[in-house]
């Protein structure tokens, strides 16, 4: 069957104007934030209902056409990249909040609901959706579920999977499943919902999700603290966690801060130059809590763990302190960074970071390395910036050599090669550093059950067999 006939058949399954084949659309919808793979999709399908998604999947099975899900396209692992003639299924028009239950504190969302849209809706109800990150203004709930997105509040609230009460999914055969029925307690065998969370669309597509909400935090207050070295950050974390219930504990290096300050959007937190900075956040629900935070700060200074610090005194200052951390990814994107999103248990972070720093410094002394991340949950973002004199392909090839050593170190510390960005195509060849051969074989078997014809986002998580 000719490509033109295939496209005409697919077009008939959708509303008018909801199948795109123009060059601009193929380029836009065929990629995410990674720059490793050139997009080359066959077409872009924009369904408006569950029934249309099912029809697309059945058509794809009949004609053995691969499908790639597309949300806000903010991913950093190429899980939503269509590089091999796939049809992209984009959920931009399935973007409604369908219902709200005030007693259960749940919201039923279509997969195209923007993260910030859900956050704002929760706030209007006097509640809180805590999964938060820099791309909240464009990422979609379906994509968040597909990658089990984390972000800046994991130390208190956990990952996306902690907030999914239930979901409807269309499997790789076109079957519609309703998983968990939004129950808090459900002891009836395997929880299939959890397979789809973090599954990157390889088992099927999330077409509806019931998300839990929480009590809104009160008087969030942030502190930025300067540390003399990475070893000092861990006792600072321990000191504050022993006294306060932290909602965040982030870190960034002096090089990361320098990039932010060079933008001119936000002032330096204080005059003292420090090699590392920690940003912590808590609910200052009373003057006693605020005083406890200041006393803990003073204790950390006395111990030599902190050189300087500042505590927010207003909502505007709170936002400015957070910008020091949240603007890093966008700011360094100018340098085409090679990103690694890795994690170890919290106690191992300083030794692990020192080992990785030594690897990069020894082998590529001319590469500028930017460290930041969610140190309160052991998640580090290693960003190697591309020198101007190297082409993108040359740079990525050199970084691939570094990768092996980085991931061998991850394995040495029993860590993960991907803490929150997923595996996609950028990490699939390194999966064995985090998963045993037996685990990978079981994962392949699970995929075969839900997607027997291998049409659902093939080549992601692990290479095609």
Summarize the structure in short.
The protein has 465 residues and is an alpha+beta fold. 34% of the residues lie in helices and 20% in strands.
General description of the model:
By secondary structure, the chain is of the alpha+beta class. It has 4 domains: 3-90, Uridine Diphospho-n-acetylenolpyruvylglucosamine Reductase, domain 2, CATH 3.30.43; 97-215, Uridine Diphospho-n-acetylenolpyruvylglucosamine Reductase, domain 3 (2-Layer Sandwich), CATH 3.30.465; 220-329, Alpha-Beta Plaits (2-Layer Sandwich); 336-433, Alpha-Beta Plaits (2-Layer Sandwich), CATH 3.30.70.2740. Helix content is 34%, strand content 20%. It has 15 helices and 18 strands. It has helices at 3-11, 23-29, 50-63, 115-124, 141-147, 154-157, 193-196, 230-241, 254-263, 287-302, 315-326, 328-332, 349-363, 392-412, 437-450; strands spanning 19-20, 43-45, 67-70, 87-90, 97-101, 106-109, 127-128, 164-171, 176-179, 204-212, 214-215, 220-227, 246-253, 276-283, 308-311, 338-343, 368-374, 379-385. The strands form 4 sheets. It has a 7-stranded antiparallel beta sheet, with helices on both faces. Helix 8 packs antiparallel against helix 10 (287-302). The longest helix has 21 residues, at 392-412. It is globular and about 75 Å long. It comes from Atopomonas hussainii. Its EC number is 1.1.99.39. One of its GO terms (molecular function) is metal ion binding. Pfam families: FAD-oxidase_C, FAD_binding_4. This is D-2-hydroxyglutarate dehydrogenase.
